[in-house]
Design brief:
The structure holds 2 protein chains of 2 kinds. Chain A contains 9 helices and 10 strands. Chain A is an alpha/beta fold. Chain A has one domain: P-loop containing nucleotide triphosphate hydrolases (Rossmann fold, 3-Layer(aba) Sandwich), CATH 3.40.50. Chain A starts with a strand and ends with a helix. Chain B is α+β, with helices and mostly antiparallel strands. The two termini of chain B are about 35 Å apart. The chains are: A alpha/beta, B alpha+beta.
């Protein structure tokens, strides 16, 4: 029996748009499990990113509750959400968003020192993660503008994982990368997931979605369907076909 | 031009808050500059206008005429003959001198006197004249500003209309040793004798009051000589000549005189100090404005590199883009300067009222185009130059590189404060990173804090040396002070000293007599004569060399000595009447009683020129002795041998209250301006920083940094520059403040200021400045609340 780490009830999100209310998420009831690689898919405007922001505490829902490990995070104020994010979540952005004025290593330590003041232990963890994503020490001393997009996104993953978060959110992590570097990033995420890291990823790329163990399909702000693929195995055609069939069923 | 105008308008619309803050800063600079120009130029001209309107004297001498007739004036006809003879003699002197344009002589009475003023007393030489005689005068006319039409009483100079003294109310005058009460009939103005700062103070009397006073014998009969000369710049030399000639003919006669040069400066000391401070403030604020504008432009270029590239790609030339910035900032400057000038005009009536209460010369407020134009030209010129120098970088931007962001908008060649190595906690480490990578912010802060530190030290200096305890200021400006000054007839000196020695209330008594002497070929100097200068209370007047000890030595005012190329050890020739004597300069003094035309002589030294008919003794009294009671008792004991007894603390209070109130206003204004400037500069800097780091703050928030953490981080990032420049500014200001203050006071003969620097105040206010800057930065950083990570993500 998988452990539930996230639970949402009647999760709704509306935006005011020129006097009219736009309902982006509609009464979503959802459970996310520890160790899963959950992929949220859907067409543009389906609400997948909005769901990700709400789950990660980047945004607050209009209605409904989000519970993380018994804590209702939808009731937290902005500062409470900040603390929640730093202690429980990691986030990988499509546009990477490293801080240009800091070196690669500082970008990672900046997030790490916010939670962990044991610098020695933190440096050890950073070294371990950098090795895992194949970022050399020389690269760690460089500034984000001096490294490639693929390297930058891998640094982004290291930054997201530095505090050993219970869940890693990734918003189109390969969206700004070419296919080669995108593949590297997906391999990295898969590797960490297979080491036990829970991952929630938003994508509209089927190649990326294949890495997921559980696929949620959103349409017009509601979950239209769900598909369980199981653990990712490279070259498993059955998983591929199952995903293709599911997506076809969803109207992808 | 139209293209540049279009871009400038677009920029202004985009940065309304920044524009508003810049407008406030420019407005303050323009307001102060215009106020300074109004005070320094037209105020001085206002005196000349009044002088001209009243056909006032360039040189005035009042000579006692009873001495001319010998020791006793027994009958009226003898006195009239003596007066006529004296007038004839003086006429001959004046007619002989080609510089004389016109002159007149009037019969007056003269005596040292006192009047209640500003809660204390004002002491001067009273010149009492019949009102009707004054009205007939063609030279040195008086203008009646209020007239109650009473049959008997006195008319006083307008400066003494202080609330307690009003038309229809009685006023008590101390004439010589005698108190007399008169009804105030009205107020008038006189250019050359309308204040206690003029060396003589005119009082007009109704015929009956004049005759009564004459009968009482409180004042001596005198001739008032009023002369206009062809070149007013020679007024001091002419005064010297006239005094020299008169004292040669009437060696024992008491005389008092003034000149255009002396009065035109001495009546405007407050205005001079005020305009000096305002001018310095105006330039300091302008400096801050220029630093802020330069920082904003550099920031604008960095943040709009892509847009500039787009405009260049669309065909805009560099000069058009620079023209856009020029138009934008010149437009703001012109608009804000006009508002500033308007503000100064709104404030001017209050400032004017304050100044008029101190100069005693009415000033009619009117629109002055010259200061307005000068303000606009100086500010626009300075801003245009700054914009041009700061915007030159636009010329070097190739459009394609800018479009591709190929030009690094930020230079991150060095990783300041690497987090893996630093021992600092995370927040200070991140703040320090921001500090070290944001030099343009640091420069603006440094300029602001250095200027504000100087202003703060100046405020502290004035607080310590004028407002809290005015003694240091008085020591510098007035020279010697004691509790009591008693003027006696010279022949009663032995008896007087015997009485003083017997009196247990007297702690110290010493001769300190002021007497005008001439400098051969130069101006008239006010000699302070003392038997033994080691007795004087204020030894700080001697700023170089030593006090004169022998009869062939003199100490000379440093300003006068420098103007005439004298050094210590040189000889200076002084004269009085027909006698001349050479003195070795033993040292330089700094006394501004006679606006820096002073000297010190021993009594024996002075006696080489003449003898003193009256002697002023300064007395220090024991702690609990009341000066007023002591004076009354001394007059009672010594009778008519005492010419005048002054309670010096009352006199000093009466005069100093003017400076204290002026300084209070200046310090309050200066502190208010400092706070406003910090707030606006911090607003501009934080705003610019938030604009350029919006994405970074969004990332940090998404990583879990709270708003409070980021606010403190932002405010902390300014602290190294704030603390460094404040500390440096305060220390440097402590060294330069006295020389700088001396520059403001140079016109009154001060070349070296030795004011106490209030170290405690400086340290505490330095902390206050830093805390306020930090608090202001925190407050301005509240905008970080509005940065939410969602918007960062949604932007994509």
């Amino acid at each position: 029996m998988k452990k539930v780490i996230y639970k949402t009830e009647n999760l709704s999100k509306s935006f005011s748009n020129g006097g009219t209310q736009q309902h982006v998420l509609k009464n979503i009831g959802l459970e996310l499990y520890q160790g899963d690689f959950t992929v949220i898919m859907g067409a543009s405007g389906a609400g997948k990113s909005t769901l990700l922001y709400a789950l990660s505490g980047m945004d607050t829902p209009t209605l409904g509750t989000i519970t993380f490990g018994g804590q209702v995070i939808s009731d937290l104020n902005q500062d409470g959400l900040c603390v929640f994010r730093r202690e429980h979540c990691g986030f990988v952005f499509q546009q990477i968003y490293l801080i240009d004025s800091m070196s690669v290593l500082d970008n990672v330590l900046c997030a790490g020192l916010l939670v962990n003041r044991d610098k020695k232990a933190l440096l050890g963890r950073a070294k371990e993660l950098f090795q895992a994503v194949d970022i050399s020490e020389e690269t760690q001393r460089k500034f984000p503008t001096q490294i490639s997009g693929g390297e930058a996104q891998r640094v982004g993953i290291v930054r997201a994982l530095i505090n050993s978060p219970e869940i890693l959110f990734a918003d189109e992590p390969t969206g700004a990368l070419n296919s080669k570097t995108g593949l590297d990033v997906l391999n990295t995420l898969t590797k960490f997931n297979q080491q036990g890291q829970s991952v929630v990823m938003v994508t509209h790329d089927m190649r990326s979605a294949r890495r997921g163990s559980r696929i949620l399909y959103l349409k017009d702000g509601a979950i239209l369907g769900e598909c369980n693929l199981g653990r990712y195995v490279h070259g498993d055609e059955k998983r591929h076909k199952k995903l293709s069939a599911f997506l076809a069923e969803m109207g992808w | 031009m139209r293209k540049s105008l279009f871009l400038a308008r677009a920029n202004l619309r985009k940065a309304k808050g920044q524009t508003a803050a810049e407008i406030v800063l420019i407005l303050l600079a323009a307001g102060m500059m215009n106020l300074w120009l109004l005070l320094s130029f037209d105020y001085k001209q206002n005196f000349d206008r009044w002088h001209q309107r009243l056909n006032a004297e360039h040189v005035t001498v009042c000579v006692e005429n009873s001495k001319a007739a010998g020791e006793s004036v027994l009958d009226q006809s003898a006195a009239i003959d003596d007066t006529r003879e004296m007038k004839d003699e003086i006429s001959k002197i004046l007619e002989k001198d080609v510089r004389t344009s016109e002159f007149c002589m009037d019969d007056v009475m003269c005596a040292g006197g006192k009047i209640a003023y500003n809660g204390g007393e004002a002491a001067s030489n009273f010149i009492m004249m019949k009102k009707e005689d004054a009205k007939k005068r063609l030279i040195g006319k008086v203008e009646f500003l209020e007239d109650g039409g009473f049959a008997e009483g006195v008319y006083l100079p307008m400066i003494y209309k202080t609330g307690d003294i009003e038309v229809g109310k009685p006023v008590e005058l101390t004439i010589g040793n005698h108190k007399a009460s008169y009804l105030v009939c009205g107020f008038f103005n006189s250019a050359m004798a309308g204040s206690h700062n003029c060396a003589m103070f005119e009082i007009l009397m109704t015929d009956q009051a004049y005759r009564d006073l004459e009968g009482k014998g409180y004042a001596m009969g005198a001739v008032l000589v009023s002369v206009r000369i062809s070149d007013k710049s020679e007024s001091e030399e002419f005064e010297n000549m006239l005094n020299h000639e008169i004292s040669a003919r009437y060696p024992g006669a008491f005389s008092v005189s003034n000149s255009y040069a002396l009065v035109s400066q001495s009546r405007y000391i407050s205005q001079m100090i005020c305009s000096g401070v305002i001018s310095a403030m105006a330039f300091f604020v302008l400096l801050i404005v220029l630093a802020v504008i330069s920082s904003n432009i550099i920031h604008y270029i960095q943040e709009n590199m892509r847009n500039l590239g787009v405009w260049k790609a669309l065909g805009y030339q560099s000069r058009q883009l620079m023209g856009m910035l020029l138009l934008q900032f010149l437009g703001i400057t012109f608009f804000a300067s006009l508002l500033g000038v308007l503000l100064s005009w709104l404030l001017f009536p209050s400032v004017n009222e304050m100044m008029v209460s101190q100069t005693g010369i009415p000033y009619e407020i009117h629109i002055l185009p010259a200061p307005l134009c000068a303000t606009l030209v100086v500010l626009s010129g300075a801003v245009a130059l700054t914009v041009w120098l700061s915007a030159r970088r636009i010329r070097k931007i190739p459009p394609i590189d800018a479009l591709r962001q190929g030009i690094q908008t930020h230079s991150f060649r060095r990783n300041h404060v690497p987090l893996d190595k630093t021992r600092l906690p995370l927040q200070p480490a991140l703040s320090l990173k921001t500090t070290l990578s944001g030099m343009k912010y640091n420069i603006t802060i440094c300029v602001t804090m250095l200027v504000l530190s100087l202003i703060l030290v100046f405020s502290g200096l004035m607080l310590e040396n004028v407002i809290v305890d005015i003694t240091p200021f008085l020591n510098l400006v007035v020279g010697e002070t004691a509790d009591v000054c008693i003027n006696i007839n010279a022949d009663a000196e032995t008896e007087f000293l015997r009485e003083m020695e017997k009196d247990s209330r007297v702690e110290k008594v010493y001769l300190y007599h002021a007497q005008k002497v001439g400098h051969a070929g130069g101006a008239e100097l006010l000699a302070s004569i003392c038997d033994d200068f080691s007795q004087v209370n204020n030894k700080e007047v001697m700023i170089e060399g030593r006090f004169p000890e022998f009869d062939n030595e003199a100490a000379v005012a440093v300003k006068y000595a420098r103007e005439h190329g004298y050094r210590i050890g040189d000889e200076i020739r002084l004269n009085f009447g027909e006698k001349e004597a050479d003195y070795i300069i033993s040292g330089f003094t700094q006394i501004s009683n006679n606006l820096g035309k002073d000297c010190l002589l021993t009594r024996k030294g002075y006696e080489r020129l003449g003898s003193l008919s009256t002697l002023s003794y300064y007395i220090n009294l024991s702690k609990n002795t009341k000066a007023a009671g002591f004076n009354q008792e001394t007059i009672r004991r010594l009778g008519e041998t005492v010419n005048q007894a002054q309670n010096m603390s009352e006199v000093i209070y009466g005069v100093s209250v003017v400076y204290i109130s002026l300084m209070k206003v200046i310090v309050a204004a200066v502190l208010f301006l400092s706070i406003t400037i910090i707030a606006f500069v911090m607003y501009l800097l934080v705003r610019a920083m938030l604009a350029s780091k919006k994405k970074e703050y969004g990332i940090l928030k998404s990583l879990g940094f709270t708003t409070a953490q980021l606010m403190v981080q932002t405010a902390l990032s300014f602290l190294p520059a704030v603390i460094g420049s404040t500390a440096l500014g305060l220390v440097a200001s402590c060294f330069v403040i006295n020389p700088l203050t001396a520059v403001f006071l140079r016109n009154i003969g001060i070349v070296t200021c030795t004011f106490r620097i209030p170290v405690g105040f400086v340290i505490v206010s330095g902390f206050g400045l830093v805390l306020f800057a930090f608090a202001a930065a925190c407050l301005m950083s509240l905008r970080i609340r509005k940065i939410v990570p969602r918007s960062l993500l949604a932007n994509d």
